[in-house]
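Meet today's protein:

…
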Amino acid sequence: MKNLYVMFTRTSTIIGKMIRAVTRYEFSHVSLALSDDLREFYSFARKKVNVPLYAGFVKEKRSYFTLGKENRTRVKIFKIPVEDSVYEQVKSFVMQTANDKEVIYNLFSLITMPILHGFQPYKQYTCIGFTNEALARAGIVKFNKPTYKYTPKELEKILKPYLFLDGYISNGTDGLDDEYFKPAGVKSAIIINALFVYECIYRLINKKPSKRYIDGNV
């Protein structure tokens, strides 16, 4: 037997605060961990500390959740024991997603969630959509609607029997030297955000990634 962990986080970003205001729920981010030491997490989030819209698959460290500004993070963690074969299925999906250069963050689904209740363009995930998909593909959770249509509050109710920690975790210094914390210049940040929004629009219309994105130009 091995353990999978789903962590709900109260992030300190402006977007995180906006999500909590709209959902009226304490947590705004969901991550998946494959190791008992809870030092690395997998999710969909911003790729650089000062570029809020440019987002995709991220291997997170604890310091990311408060942008390196606080020494602890408010969390709720669920520990799910699974057979080794199920664990490997989840790990395989995570690694496959990590290596897929076309996947990006599902920005417009997040923005319109209160109205449209989620939708999934070509190879795009929100943090909760990615976690749900991992759980669903391995048969750990039986969802009654598409995985991208769930809110964190709904997922918490489903995972309630697996509650492991409801409190705080220390952030430590893990990740503070990562590329994530090397800020882009103001002009670069604006351009990167704009190109990412363009990419999201392109995929809505064409149902495929743009050549610009495939060539590595955001």
Residues 2-214 form a domain with the endopeptidase fold (from Nostoc punctiforme) fold (CATH 3.90.1720). The mean pLDDT is 93.
